[in-house]
Amino acid sequence: MHARGGIAAGQSRAEAEGLFVDAMQRLCDVAGPLGVSIVLEPVNRYEINFVNTVGEGAALLARVARPTSSSTRSRISCA
């Protein structure tokens, strides 16, 4: 599955990040018991306005705060 999102018009970066972290935590709660890994791919700034660098992705994954999240590879292994 591929999902793509960005910062909506009128939405702050902080709000978008909060929604992302909340959604990833909920997703991990469901995906973890199923052994599903979730990969976050930074996309260049010309295509999207959210998570453009590995550093941004790593910082967001650190906020997801799941025991098996790996911010060095922009991957959350929810299992």
Give the ordered list of helices and strands: HEHEE
Number of helices: 2
Radius of gyration: 12 Å
What is the rounded distance between the termini?
18 Å
Structural class: alpha+beta
Number of strands: 3
Instruction: Provide the β-strand percentage band.
Output: 5-15%
Uncertain residue segments: 70-74
Biggest sheet strand order reads 1-3-2
Mean pLDDT: 81
- Overall 3D form: globular
**Helical residue percent?**
25-40%
- How does the major sheet shape up? 3 strands, antiparallel
What would the keywords be for this entry?
79 residues; alpha+beta; 3-stranded antiparallel sheet; 2 helices; 38% helix; 10% strand; globular
Could you describe the 3D structure shown?
By secondary structure, the protein is an alpha+beta fold. It contains two helices and three strands. Strands 1-3-2 form a three-stranded antiparallel sheet, covered by helices on one side. A hairpin with a 4-residue loop joins strand 2 and strand 3. The longest helix has 19 residues. The two termini are 18 Å apart.
Brief characterization of the structure:
With 79 residues, this protein is of the alpha+beta class. The protein is 38% helix and 10% strand.
